[in-house]
Amino acid sequence: MAANGWNKTDCRLAARCAAVASIGAAVIHFGVAPMHGRDWLPSGLFFAAIAVFQLMWAFVVWMRPIPLVLTTGILANTGSVGLWVMSRIVGAPFGPYAGQPEAVDTAGICVLLLQCYVVMGAGWAWPRRFWVGEVSNLGRALVLLGANTVMAGAVTVGLASSQQGHDHHHHGGTDAAQAEHQAVHDAHTAGDHRNADPAASPDVVAPQPSSAPTSLESGLPVTDMGLETDGHHHDHHD
After folding, report:
1. Is residue 233, in this structure, part of any structural domain at all?
2. Where is the composition biased (Low complexity) (predicted)?
3. CA atoms within 13 A of residue 63's CA, in its CB half-sphere
4. What is the number of structural domains in the chain?
5. Of 18, 25, 52, 17, which is closest to residue 158 (Cα–Cα)?
6. For residue 46, is it within any domain?
7. Which structural domain range is residue 67 located in?
8. Whole-prediction pTM value?
9. Per residue in 142-170, is it b (16+ CB within 10 Å) or e — as a string?
C-alpha cells in the first residue's frame, strides 16, 4: 500500500518541497564559500562541504524519501541553523574570529529560512510516509511551482546581498586606510608648522622699534614740529 501510494501522498510532495529548499541553500553556500575561504580557508571548505551535502541530499530525497534520508536532512539542517544562530549571538566556536558575534546579513537570513523549510518539509513527510492522500497533478504542480519560486527569490536576494556586502567590506577597508593615512599626514604637517621658526614665516611680522623721540612729560612721540602726537592736533604757543 505504501509503495503504490508514494506518488499520491503528501509525504512525497513535502519531501520534494524540502529538496527544492535544500538546493537553494546549497547554491547560496556555494556562492559564499570563496568569500569565506579568502578570510579563512577552513571556513570556505566548511561552507563548500555543507553545500555539497545539501545538493546530494536534495537529489536523494527527491527520488526516495525514506526515513533514514529524511532524518539525516533534519539533523544536518537543524545543526546548521543552530550554528548560524550561535555565531550571531556569541560568535563562532572556532577560527580566527572565535567568540566574536557576526553581523546578521541578508544572505544568512535567506539560507536560514531555506534550511528551516527543509526541516519542516522533511519533518512533515517523516511520520506521514505511509499515509495515502489524493493529490492532483495540478495541485502538485502548483505547490512545486511555488516552492521553486520561493527558492529562486531567496537565492537571488541572498547571492546579490552577499556580493554587495563583500564589496562594501573591501572598499570600506580601503577607505578607512586612506582616511587614516590622511589623518597621520595632516597631524605631521600641523606639527611642522608649530615647530617652524616664526622669523622664517612670511605671515609673522616682527615688531620694529620706534625711532621717534618721545616727550619726557607725556611719554608720547614728538614730531619734527615739536607736536606731541597722541592722536589729536594741539596748538603750541611760545
Report:
1. no
2. 197-213
3. 4
4. 1
5. 25
6. yes
7. 6-174
8. 0.67
9. ebeeebeebbeebbeebbebbeebbeeee
